[in-house]
Design goal:
Layout: H1 2-26, H2 29-51, H3 59-70
Protein name: DUF6221 family protein
InterPro entries: DUF6221
Organism: Streptomyces camelliae
Length: 85
């Protein structure tokens, strides 16, 4: 799971940089406004998972949710098939 979390954090950083570049060049506020909150929420969930106590009953559900969300990057060369839920 650690590798999946690193992957999600890296995608978050890369997407934020890409969106910032688009906004700077083209003023794409509408696209940014619709996608950046979702990126922030995925990153928040990943950070919450990392901070959870292993005995937390929500851990399995959050692990599943992160695997589902990571599928949006299934075409990325660093994505691994074993991360599918």
């Amino acid at each position: 799971m650690d590798e999946l979390l690193r992957f999600l954090h890296a995608r978050y950083e890369a997407d934020n940089h890409a969106y910032a570049e688009v906004a700077y060049r083209f003023g794409g506020d509408a696209v940014l406004d619709s996608h950046l909150p979702m990126l922030d929420l995925v990153d928040m969930l990943a950070r919450e998972y990392e901070a959870m106590d292993p005995s937390d009953t929500r851990l399995a559900g959050l692990r599943y949710a992160l695997r589902v969300l990571a599928q949006s990057y299934a075409e990325h060369p660093d994505y691994r098939a074993e991360w599918r839920p």
